[in-house]
């Protein structure tokens, strides 16, 4: 059965708050994950429409503490400036994607997208590494899995207590991330198809089968379904 694109796990007030929704300019899935007790939350991949992201955070009474960026492509990062300016949150990503993150204006030019206002994006507050575990609230953690391939610093964020992973554009329902950038100068030479498949097999396919996968674009899936049906990694 076809899975819904928007994901909400909020029915039980004692369980974590999870909401994923597409944002402009290129339909990136932005995900809010919150602690129902402390009201602390993280946002994964704030591509755009910061007003919508903030409205959803505020409607749930949450306080944004961290922005987790899966990779440095424009559609996953350009909302970070306004979120940081309006909430004081920290921005985290893998250092191997810093050059992409800092080169977002050139990416916007190549994709015909308006660049973020105010010049360069703010420098990240911290860099994540493979295996880094962040306790983002007293009851919840996120484990960082470095998954190079789509980009050098692509990172999947695994929330073990919630049985959820956000792999960015590394893994999709029935597919994998793009690695060819012909005609896009700002992204030439930044992808590695063999590394991509290796990252998925070694890092993501080792997660529990019931883990929900909120990919960077499109429909959600599970690790079990991708292990069984994804033709690129079988």
UniProtKB/TrEMBL annotation:
InterPro entries for this protein: MBL_Glyoxalase_II, Metallo-B-lactamas, RibonucZ/Hydroxyglut_hydro
Recorded GO MF terms: hydrolase activity; metal ion binding
Pfam families in the cross-refs: Lactamase_B
Statement: the UniProt record of this protein carries the keyword Hydrolase: yes
PANTHER family for the chain: HYDROXYACYLGLUTATHIONE HYDROLASE GLOC
Span of domain Metallo-beta-lactamase: 27-217
Co-factor(s): Zn(2+)
Name of the molecule in the record: Metallo-beta-lactamase domain-containing protein
Domain of life of the native organism: Eukaryota
Keyword Electron transport attached: no
Annotated keywords: Hydrolase, Metal-binding, Zinc
